[in-house]
Every structure is written in structure tokens, then in C-alpha cells.
Specification:
Layout: H1 2-12, H2 18-42, H3 50-55, H4 58-65, H5 68-75, H6 78-85, H7 88-95, H8 98-104, H9 113-125, H10 130-149, H11 176-184, H12 193-208, H13 212-217, E1 223-224, E2 229-233, E3 239-243, H14 246-262, H15 281-292, H16 303-316, H17 321-328, H18 333-354
Antiparallel strand pairs: 1-2, 2-3
């Protein structure tokens, strides 16, 4: 019951995306199943592995996170992609189930730190990464923060529990020269609506640094050609303005012309499919993944890599950190600072390659 109310709170008051809702729901349901299983065991009952099925699921969990094969299959299936992305009906059905909560005797106020630590340790034993475990712990902390505000619990039992230390992963980005070659190579794109759309889509992600969901939601009236700016609606419905160059303006106008000549069903969205319907996340992923795949040295090929490339390029060319933060729509400067580590690593590589005294004798 309380998980359902929390998800509704995220949806209607915090304006979280459907993908984020689903992630919270899965993590909290997993936590609930572990807790109820442990409580039954402590009371002398038998849980027959129910708690650990919900909590660990090593194969299922790792498949959900990595699973490149399943990911590609899902990406190529529009209907499955849309259901998996939004699924408001499925989400509410899964979130609710108040009878199930009662049957499993999930009482958040009876959970203590020992039980949460046990859950985290079990997740690590099952082979989940520290990054994944920290995400699940964050969901539990947010859940108890909500319960505390609602007066259900007196304090947030999870707040002071530290998560496992995760190794810092530097963002992957595309080399600027390779990115320019990708956008300038006309042989890579078909000479029709889809080719023009895909090329401009990739370029707009790269030159603005916007998120995939922001690009999908972009409408024609969000564009001010006179001022050469885009109005982007980001997380939490927060809006920001992103400028673009005259070159991007010309390509935007060309894309619009081709779109209007080929698409019969008029739409407010900037990017559409051949039938006039707006794009969906898996399709955008497929487009970017396919074209970045033409770069032999590129390992990461998601739309977010283009966002990383935008930020890294801006900082490498002297942009101030706060300015990049605003362009990216980051709530915290700490989220933007990770790109300074990327630029520093590149500086070290350049120094080692170029400076005559940088190499050791062994090298």
C-alpha cells in the first residue's frame, strides 16, 4: 500500500519519469519481498526462499542491467519498447496490490538497520555491482523519507546507512574529430526523410547536450529561430534555454522542410516517425547506436554518450563549469564536475605523448 502511494507521490508531485517510477517500484518491491521473507523466518515460519528470490535474483537482476542481447531485441520492437518505457497501467497495477502488502505483512515501521544491512550484504553476495546496490539503497532511503513526512515512521531508519564503495567510472565520449567525420560523411545516411531525420537528430544531441527524453519531448514551438535557442523541459519539468549555431539553424530548417514534405499527419513534435507519431526511447537509442557503430574505436554507443561528448568538448574548449551545468540542466555542480576528471585524463595523455621529458626510459 505504501509503495503504491510513494510511486503516486513521485509521479504527481515530483514529476518523475515513467522509467524512474518503474525503477523505484522494482527496487522497493524487491526490498519488501526480502523484508517479509526475513520477518516470517524470524517468527518461526518458512519462507521457502521467497525473500531471496525477490531480493537477489542474480540471474534476473544481471540480465535486467546488462543483457546486451535482450536489450537489442527490445530496442528493435517498438510496441515492447513503448510498453516498457511508460506502462502507466501496468505500473499502477504492480504498484498497488494492497492485498498483497497485507498478506505479506510488510510493515515499514518494523524494519531496523540490521535488516537493511543484511539486505545489502545479500545483494553483494549475489554478485550485484556496488553501483546497483547503491541505487537500491537510495530508493529505500527516499521511500523512508516519504514515510517520515507522512508520519508513518518517526525517523528514517535507512538515512545513515552507507552504501558500498563504487569505483568511479569516467564518462565515455566520442572524439571530436571522429564525431565531425560521422556528421560530415553523407554516404552514411540515406537520401530520404529517415536519413535526414537521423542525421539531424544525432547532431542536435551532440551540439546541445540534451537528454534523450528531452529530445523526444521537443516540439516545434519550443524553437525560437530568431534567437537561435531551444526551450528544453528536463527532469521535474524544469525548463532551460539552450542556444544553437547558424549552421544548426540551417540544418533544422532543412529537416523541417523535408519532414513537412513527407509526413502527411501533422504533429507538434519536432522529431517524428514516418507515420507522424513521435519517437520513443528505444528508437532513438537504435538510431544513435547504429551510427556510432560506424566509428571503429567507439565502445559506448548510447544517446547519453553524445551528452557526455558535449560536456567534455565544452570544458576542453574553455567553458566555465557553471555554464556547462546550466546547459546540461544539472541540479548539482557535483554532477558536472565529473567531466573535469575526463578533461584532466585527456590532458595527461596529451602531455605524455607530446612532451619530450614525459616518457620514462623503459618506455
Amino acid at each position: 500500500m505504501w509503495i503504491e502511494k510513494f510511486i503516486q507521490y513521485l509521479r504527481y508531485e515530483r514529476n518523475y519519469s515513467p522509467r524512474t517510477e518503474i525503477s523505484y517500484f522494482r527496487d522497493l518491491t524487491q526490498f519488501k519481498e526480502f523484508v517479509t521473507g526475513e520477518q516470517v523466518e524470524e517468527q518461526g515460519g518458512t519462507k521457502k526462499g521467497k525473500g531471496r528470490q525477490g531480493e537477489g535474483q542474480p540471474k534476473g537482476e544481471r540480465q535486467g542491467e546488462g543483457q546486451p542481447k535482450r536489450g537489442r531485441q527490445g530496442e528493435g520492437q517498438p510496441k515492447r519498447g513503448r510498453q516498457g518505457e511508460g506502462q502507466p497501467k501496468r505500473g499502477r497495477q504492480g504498484e498497488g496490490q494492497p492485498k498483497g502488502d497485507q498478506q505479506e505483512r510488510f510493515y515499514p515501521g518494523e524494519v531496523d538497520q540490521r535488516l537493511i544491512r543484511h539486505w545489502l550484504a545479500t545483494l553483494m553476495e549475489e554478485g550485484l555491482t556496488a553501483r546497483t546496490v547503491n541505487r537500491k539503497l537510495s530508493a529505500v532511503k527516499s521511500f523512508y523519507r516519504y514515510l517520515q513526512k507522512q508520519g508513518v515512521v518517526e525517523h528514517n531508519v535507512a538515512e545513515s546507512i552507507p552504501g558500498p564503495k563504487a569505483s568511479k567510472r569516467l564518462p565515455s565520449f566520442v572524439n571530436p574529430k571522429e564525431m565531425s567525420a560521422l556528421l560530415d560523411d553523407e554516404s552514411l545516411y540515406t537520401d530520404d526523410f529517415r536519413g535526414v531525420r537521423d542525421r539531424f537528430l544525432i547532431e542536435l544531441l551532440y551540439v546541445t547536450g540534451m537528454r534523450r527524453a528531452e529530445l523526444i519531448a521537443l516540439k516545434d514551438n519550443d524553437i525560437d529561430l530568431h534567437a537561435s535557442t531551444l526551450k528544453v523541459t528536463g527532469k521535474g519539468n524544469k525548463q532551460r534555454i539552450i542556444p544553437f549555431s547558424n549552421d544548426t539553424k540551417e540544418k533544422l530548417q532543412h529537416y523541417r522542410t523535408v519532414r513537412d514534405e513527407n509526413i502527411k499527419n501533422k504533429t507538434d513534435f519536432l522529431f517524428v516517425k514516418e507515420d507522424g507519431a513521435p519517437l520513443y526511447p528505444k528508437l532513438v537509442y537504435n538510431i544513435v547506436h547504429a551510427y556510432l557503430g560506424s566509428i571503429p574505436t567507439q565502445t559506448k554507443k548510447s544517446p547519453h554518450v553524445l551528452r557526455h561528448s558535449f560536456a567534455t568538448g565544452m570544458l576542453n574548449n574553455g567553458a566555465e563549469l557553471n555554464a556547462v551545468k546550466e546547459l546540461l540542466g544539472h541540479a548539482s555542480l557535483a554532477s558536472t564536475e565529473v567531466y573535469t576528471h575526463v578533461t584532466f585524463e585527456e590532458m595527461k595523455k596529451t602531455y605524455k605523448l607530446a612532451h619530450p621529458r614525459a616518457k620514462t626510459k623503459e618506455e
